[in-house]
Amino acid sequence: MEAANAPVSVLADAPAPDAGQVHYSPSQLSTWSKCPRRWMYRYTLGLRLPPGAAAAVGKAVHEPQGKHFNEIIAGRDGLDTRAYVAAAADAFEREAADVDWAAEAGDGDNRALDRGSSLDRATLMARHYREAVAPTVGTPLLAEQGIELAVPGTEWSLLCYPDVVARQDGEVVVRDTKTAGKAPDGIKSGSPTPKREHALQLVAYRLAVQSFMGTVPGRLLLDYVWISARKGGPAQPNSVPVVVPAADDDVSLLLEDIDLMHRQIQAGLFPRKRTEMTCSPRWCGYWSRCIGPGRGRDL
Ligand code: SF4
Fold first, then answer.
1. pLDDT tens-digit readout, 67-94
2. What percentage of the chain has pLDDT greater than the value 70?
3. 171-180 β-sheet, strand order
4. FRET label pair with 86: which of 12, 41, 68, 130, CA 20 to 30 Å apart?
5. pLDDT at site 107
6. How remote is the CA of residue 281 from the centroid of ligand 1, in Å?
7. 291 in ligand 1 pocket by Cβ < 6 Å?
8. The pLDDT value given to residue 13
9. Mutate to test the pocket of ligand 1, among 31, 32, 34, 37 (most ligand atoms within 8 A of CB)
10. What is the mean pLDDT of the chain?
11. Does the beta carbon of 287 sit less than 6 angstroms from any atom of ligand 1?
C-alpha cells in the first residue's frame, strides 16, 4: 500500500455506505472494532438504528459548522451567533423527529435526556462553538468536504469528511469536533487525551488531506465540546482542543487494519463480540436479532 501515491477524488454527494460499493469510512472501522456482527447488521443488511439523543445533539453542533466555514471560504462573513444557533436548533429538530424519546428517558441514569433539555444542551454547545472555538480555527480551506481515497493494491476506497481544514500559524491543521456528555479523560490533570476511535479517525483524515492538498497536515486537533453542571447550578458549556499525534506508521497500520476488515467482510466472517462493553439489550439495538429474546445473558 503506497499511501503517499494514493489517487484521490472529491465527492459532491458521496454514496451511502450500503449502496453496494466497496468503500469504508473511519466510523465503519470503529463499528467493526466494537463488533463485526454489529457492522454486518448496519452495513451489509442496511439496518439503520434510530439516532439517540446524543446523535441529535451532535448533529445540531456539526451542521451549522459546515455552513459557517463554507461561507467564509466563499469570501463571505460566515454565520453570526444568532444564525448559527438557529441553524443548530433546526438541525436538532430534524434529527430529534427520529429519536425514540421514551426509550431515552426510560432509564434512571438518563433522566436528563428528554427532548427539551437535549435541545437546550445542543444550542448551548452550538453557541459556545461559534463564540469560543470557531474564531480559533484560522483560515478555513475545506469544510465538510467529502474526499474519497482509492488505496493502490486494495479493492476498496476510504471515504473521509473532515469537519474543517484550515491554515493556522503557517501550517495546515485538520480539526474535528466531538460533542460529549462529559469532559475528556485527563482534563483534571491538564493532559486531556483523545478517545482512540477519534484519534484513528484523524489519522485517516491526515492521509486524505495529504493526498488532496499535496501536503502533510502539520497538526491534527480534536475539539471536544461538552456541558458540565454542578448540582443545582447552571449548565456550563466547555471545550478543549486535544492534539492527536500521528506519524506515517499510524497511517500504515490503519490501512492494514482496514484491509484485514475488508477480507473478513468478503469472506462473510462476522463474529459476535460479546466482550464488548455495549453488548447488552440496553446499549446494542441489534440484541434481539443477534442474541434473541430470552436467549443469552448480558455478560
Ligand atoms: S448483541 Fe452483542 S454480539 Fe450482537 S451485534 Fe450487538 S454487540 Fe454485537
1. 999 999 999 999 999 999 999 999 999 9
2. 88
3. 139-143, 164-168, 171-180, 219-228, 236-243
4. 12
5. 54
6. 9
7. yes
8. 43
9. 37
10. 87
11. yes
Tell me, using a 6 A CB cutoff, whether residue 36 lines ligand 1. no
Nearest CA to ligand 1 atom 3: 272
Beta bridge partners of 226: 180, 238
pTM for this prediction: 0.88
Closest by Cα among 65, 60, 67 to 99:
60
What is the whole-number distance in angstroms between the Cα of residue 222 and the centre of ligand 1? 29
Quick count: other Cβ atoms within 10 Å of Cβ 272?
15
Alpha helices in the chain (DSSP H): 26-34, 36-39, 53-73, 81-96, 101-105, 115-128, 196-213, 248-266, 287-290
Cell of 52: 439517540
Backbone angles phi, psi at 24, to 5 degrees: -120, 155
More confident residue, 165 or 150: 165
228: helix, strand or coil: strand
Report which DSSP code applies to 234. Answer: P
User: Is residue 268 pLDDT above 70, yes or no?
Assistant: yes
Nearest-CA residue for atom 5 of ligand 1: 38
> Poorest-confidence range of 18-27, 137-146, 240-249, 264-273?
18-27
User: How far is ligand 1, taken at its centre, from the CA of residue 39, in Å?
Assistant: 9
Most distant CA atoms of the chain, gap in Å: 60
Q: How confident is the model over 196-220, as a mean pLDDT?
A: 93
Domains located in the chain, CATH noted: 1-38+140-287 (3.90.320), 50-136 (no CATH)
Q: Indicate which atom in ligand 1 lies nearest the CA of residue 290.
A: 4
How far, in Å, from the CA of 297 to the mean position of ligand 1? Answer: 11
Residue with the nearest Cα to atom 4 of ligand 1? 290
